[in-house]
Amino acid sequence: MPWSKTITVALTGASGAPYGLRLIDCLLRANVRVYLLISQAAQIVLKLETGLDIPARPHDAEVFLTEHFHAAPAQLHVFGRQEWTAPVASGSNPAAAMVICPCTAGTLGRLAAGLSGSLIERAADVALKERRPLILVLRETPLTTIHLENMLRLAHAGALIMPAAPGFYHQPTTLDELVDFMVARVLDHLGVPHELMSRWGEAGAGTC
After folding, report:
1. CA distance 7 to 4
2. Which of these, 151, 161, 153, lies nearest to 189 by C-alpha position?
């Protein structure tokens, strides 16, 4: 099946797992092929925040999540944390864009230092060097000067820093609507169409 595009999504151990899951769901619904990277800490947070107990083995996780999201065959690929032969590890075969959602302050710091100790960090480094969109949905507060300097350094390198800070002008009444606000902003910057929420000056909201 010809996918509209391929996007890498990485889940790290910051609070905010529902953001990442909703983003994956909407990308799959939009006929996007998703390369998924999950840190060990993210697996723990996913279970704590969503009750989703994702298998540790990449192949098992892929089967589990393909069924969970009702994805098409071969639409969702899960890669291991040290799987250096994955497409995202090389600039010769990068995805169209990458999103780390949620992004820990630790991941932010390692990216700012140019360190690639895991496939998540290597894939992000590839996105930067190939000038592909890299969106970091940072979930941390308060922010130290170190965090702020790392954010600035990555912004200078081409990353888009998008802290998980949902708005309220659409008068949300549920947690899902707050999650959708952030996911909608990410999808906008990825160029993926959606109807998650009403836009400023418009009325009505739909689903992705």
Report:
1. 10
2. 161
Contact present, 163 and 154 (Cβ < 8 Å): no
Specify the 3-state DSSP secondary structure of 16: coil
11 membership: H or E segment, kind and range: strand 6-11
Q: What is the 3-state secondary structure (H, E, C) of 130-184?
A: CCCCEEEEECCCCCCHHHHHHHHHHHHHCCEECCCCCCCCCCCCCHHHHHHHHHH
Beta carbons of 102 and 138 less than 8 angstroms apart = yes
Give pTM, 2 decimals.
Answer: 0.96
Tell me the β-bridge partners of 161: 136
> Per DSSP, what are the bridge partners of residue 6?
33
DSSP, residue by residue, 75-143: SEEEE-TT-TTSGGGSTTS--SEEEEEEE-HHHHHHHHTT--SSHHHHHHHHHHHTT--EEEEE--SSP
Domains and CATH numbers, the chain: 6-190 (3.40.50.1950)
**Per-position pLDDT tens, the chain of length 208:** 689 999 999 999 999 999 999 999 999 999 999 999 999 999 999 999 999 999 999 999 999 999 999 999 999 999 999 999 999 999 999 899 999 999 999 999 999 999 999 999 999 999 999 999 999 999 999 999 999 999 999 999 999 999 999 999 888 999 999 999 999 999 999 999 999 987 787 766 667 8
Distances (CA, A) of 45 to 90, 91, 92, 157, 197: 28, 30, 33, 29, 26
